[in-house]
Each structure stands twice: as structure tokens, then as C-alpha cells.
Specification:
Number of domains of chain A: 1
Structural class of chain A: mainly alpha
Number of helices of chain B: 3
Low-confidence stretches of chain B: none
Number of helices of chain A: 9
Order of helices and strands of chain B: HEEHEHEEEE
CATH architecture of the largest domain in chain B: 2-Layer Sandwich
CATH superfamily of the largest domain in chain B: Fe-S cluster assembly (FSCA)
CATH topology of the largest domain in chain B: GMP Synthetase, Chain A, domain 3
Number of strands of chain A: 0
Mean pLDDT of chain A: 95
Oligomer: heterodimer
Mean pLDDT of chain B: 91
Low-confidence stretches of chain A: none
Structural class of chain B: alpha/beta
Distance between the termini of chain B: 43 Å
Chain lengths: 257, 167
């Protein structure tokens, strides 16, 4: 299905979903890159640099799809907005914090994102289905890696376990925001763009995680996501990150590289 | 003027090396999705290996430079029309990878419908050492120096080596 074939309300809803997904990947990629040079072991320095590069690449592809749908410039979408105009989930408003915190966040995000991609791989919006098919192949490595770390920290003795549990308790409500409904997601389902409403994707995600969390004795999910899941209120930590990732562009707006 | 054949275009493409692993060409890696000859227009579509691969524009430009002049109009574009997978690397490409110290990728699994969200690394992921042929190897890191590589250690010849990711 081409963009022209979509009704205006469906197109608006799709634009909202694309922006939310692109901002999630973009902001997470920048948090990942905060570990460059200071990860606990060299292998993780390499791994998190790769994870960051994957996510920023996915964001770039999604901003490109959004620009093709609504007009505009992908770079401007990525770097040209004020902090309150970003639509990433509140899960990505938290700073890097410690290693267990970054592992917990990535595990929760990657599994939620995998459930979301599953609901888009057969999308009637063909350009999105194509990008999603490609992203999923790469994300498999993220799932493998983060699960290995989750298990290692959960079973690795008192301190890593205590830190992991504390991080999960802190992050759980905001993690639910990744799969909180976006405006018009019922229209997207009706048009075949999305396989099921995001609330149903969220239930599938949580049902998929529950047995493993129970096996590892990790905190279960809370009942419902908080209000204001995707802004416009933004944390000071995100504002700091925004200052960092827009710094070069703001120093010389319109520069050609 | 002599007519340009598709074979000549493929031969030219086979001369364009991958910028990160120059022993293999864009044809060996299976990056070429389509070659279209239509009168004065030559159009080549390439598949990105990884969405975030920083070499994509470099690859596109190298191909465009190699084909320049072969037809009055040459267009080279990237497309997601079908996902590139490591299964597209040719036998010849696999041999070249092995000869230069890279283990070729394992076959990828099915990629259709929903997958389990809890994905576990097999206890002993397998890779064959490209230096000594031993299968007594350990996974060191799923991630490596570029997006497409994984790090292994060979217990027999006691050397690290890289395997192309199976994606």
C-alpha cells in the first residue's frame, strides 16, 4: 500500500506511530553510546557501541519513512526539535545509571520492541513492513545479548542481583509506556497497518516475559502504564542528553558536511 | 554504438569491493537486488546489509563510480524491497571470507511470524575456525568491530577470529 492510498486519519495515526518508534530507537541509541569507553568490560564497550549504531540506524530508517509519508527532512526530524517535542517512551527518559540499570532497561525495551515489530512485519504499509523485516533480523542479536546479561546478573550473587531487582522495580511502570496506545491505533488495525492494538501487543509481551521473570525471581509487571507516557513532560536527564546530541548541529545550523 | 549486456554490468559489479571486507565484492555478498537495462538507462538496486551500516553510502557511490559511462544514464539506489540476509553470500564469497580469516555466517533460521521474546544463546554456539578448521571454538562476544561481525576464540590454534553474523 502506498502512502497515497491511506486515508488522512490513518496517515496521521501512522505518522504518530513512526515518530514514537523512531524517537525510542534514537534516544536509546544515544544512551547506549554513553557507555563507550567506560563499560565494565571491553567486550561490552564493543557490544554497546554496536547496539547504539544499530538503533540509530533503525531510527534513521524510520525518520526516513516518516519524511516520505508527511514530507520533511529526516535529519531535521532527528535533531531539529525541542526536547518536549520528542515522543519517546518515558522508559528512555532515565539516565544510563549503573550497569544493572542499563541491562534492565535494554532487556525490557528490546522485548517490548520485538513484540511491536511482530505486529508490524505483515503491515499493509509495504515500506514499513520492509524496514521492519530487516530490523527484526538485527534485533535478534539484541535479544540474545540482553537475555544473557539479565540471567548473569539475576543469578550472579547478592550485589548484582540486588541492583538488577532495584532497577527493574524502578523501570517497570515506564517500560509499559513503550506499548501504551498511540492515538488512532484502532484505525491502524482497521487499515491493516498494525496487526493488533498496542494494548494487545502489550499483553502478549507481558505474557511472554512472565515465566522467565518468575524463573529468575525478578519483579513482575505492574498493572498499568502511568499517564504522560510519551511526553510532553521530559526529565532533566533527557534534556541533558538532548543538549549533548544536538550540540554540534546547534553550533552551526545548516552546515553542510 | 554497441549494446550493453547485463552480463557486462554484473562483471563490472563483481569488481566493486566491500569497503569493510575488501576481499569480497558486492556481488559475492549478494548486495545486488536488481540490474535493469532500459534503452539509455541502467538502474542498479542494492540491498543494505545492516540498516545502520555506515558504509552504505560509500558502497552506493563506489558502484555508481564503477558503472559511470557504461550507459548514458546510470542510477544506483538502496532498497529495502527484500531484506538482505547473510544467506545471500555466495559460495565463492564464503570461500574468500574463509581464506582471509573470517568464518562465514551460519545459515539463518526461519524469519516469518512471531518469535519467542526470550531468546537464549545456545550453550555452545558453533563456528568453525577459519585458520585451522577446528570446531572447538568459544563465543567471545556477539558483537564485534563492525555491525556484521561476531567474535570467537579457537581453542585449538589459540587465536581469536571473527564470524559474519547470521542475520
Amino acid at each position: 500500500m502506498t502512502a497515497q492510498a491511506l486515508d488522512a486519519p490513518v496517515r496521521t495515526a501512522l505518522a504518530g506511530l513512526l515518530l514514537a518508534m523512531a524517537d525510542d530507537e534514537f534516544v536509546l541509541g544515544f544512551w547506549d553510546s554513553e557507555w563507550t569507553g567506560i563499560a565494565p568490560i571491553l567486550e561490552e564497550d564493543v557490544a554497546f557501541a554496536s547496539l547504539a549504531q544499530d538503533e540509530i540506524g533503525h531510527a534513521q530508517a524510520l525518520y526516513q519513512l516518516l519524511a516520505e509519508l508527511e514530507g520533511g527532512d529526516p535529519d531535521e526530524l532527528a535533531f531539529g526539535r525541542r526536547p518536549e517535542e520528542y515522543r519517546h517512551a518515558r522508559l528512555l527518559d532515565h539516565p544510563r545509571t549503573d550497569w544493572a540499570f542499563s541491562v534492565a532497561r535494554r532487556f525490557l525495551y528490546d522485548t517490548a520492541d520485538a513484540a511491536r515489530l511482530d505486529a508490524l512485519v505483515a503491515s499493509a504499509h509495504a515500506p514499513l513492513a520492509a524496514v521492519v523485516a530487516k530490523m527484526r533480523r538485527e534485533e535478534t542479536y539484541h535479544l540474545l545479548h540482553m537475555h544473557a546479561w539479565l540471567e548473569r546478573l539475576a543469578t550472579g550473587g547478592q550485589e548484582p542481583r540486588a541492583r538488577l531487582v532495584a532497577a527493574m522495580e524502578r523501570l517497570w511502570p515506564d517500560a509499559l509506556c513503550v506499548l501504551a496506545g498511540v492515538e488512532g491505533d484502532d484505525l491502524l488495525v482497521g487499515a491493516g497497518v498494525l496487526a493488533e492494538p498496542l494494548a494487545a501487543v502489550r499483553r502478549r509481551w507481558l505474557a511472554g516475559l512472565a515465566p522467565e521473570l518468575e524463573r529468575l525471581g525478578l519483579p513482575p509487571a505492574p498493572a498499568a502504564p502511568p499517564a504522560g507516557c510519551r511526553g510532553p513532560e521530559r526529565s532533566d536527564d533527557f534534556r541533558w542528553l538532548w543538549e549533548q546530541f544536538t550540540m554540534v548541529r546547534r553550533s552551526d545550523p545548516g552546515a553542510v558536511w | 554504438m554497441r549494446t550493453l549486456s547485463e552480463t557486462e554490468v554484473w562483471e563490472a559489479l563483481a569488481e566493486v569491493p566491500d569497503p569493510e571486507i575488501p576481499v569480497v565484492s558486492v556481488v559475492d555478498l549478494g548486495l545486488v537486488h536488481a540490474v535493469e537495462l532500459d534503452g539509455e538507462r541502467l538502474r542498479v538496486e542494492l540491498l543494505p546489509t545492516f540498516v545502520g551500516c555506515p558504509a552504505l553510502e560509500l558502497i552506493r557511490r563506489s558502484v555508481a563510480e564503477r558503472l559511470a559511462g557504461m550507459a548514458p544514464r546510470v542510477e544506483v539506489e538502496m532498497t529495502f524491497a527484500v531484506p538482505w540476509t547473510s544467506d545471500r553470500i555466495s559460495e565463492e564469497g564464503r570461500r574468500k571470507l574463509r581464506d582471509s580469516g573470517f568464518a562465514p555466517p551460519a545459515p539463518t533460521g526461519p524469519s516469518g511470524g512471531a518469535r519467542p521474546l526470550i531468546a537464549t544463546i545456545p550453550v555452545r554456539p558453533t563456528a568453525t575456525c577459519p585458520f585451522c578448521g577446528s570446531t572447538d571454538t568459544n563465543l567471545e562476544n556477539l558483537f564485534g568491530p563492525t555491525l556484521c561481525r561476531t567474535l570467537f576464540w579457537c581453542n585449538r590454534c589459540r587465536q581469536p577470529f571473527e564470524q559474519f553474523k547470521a542475520v
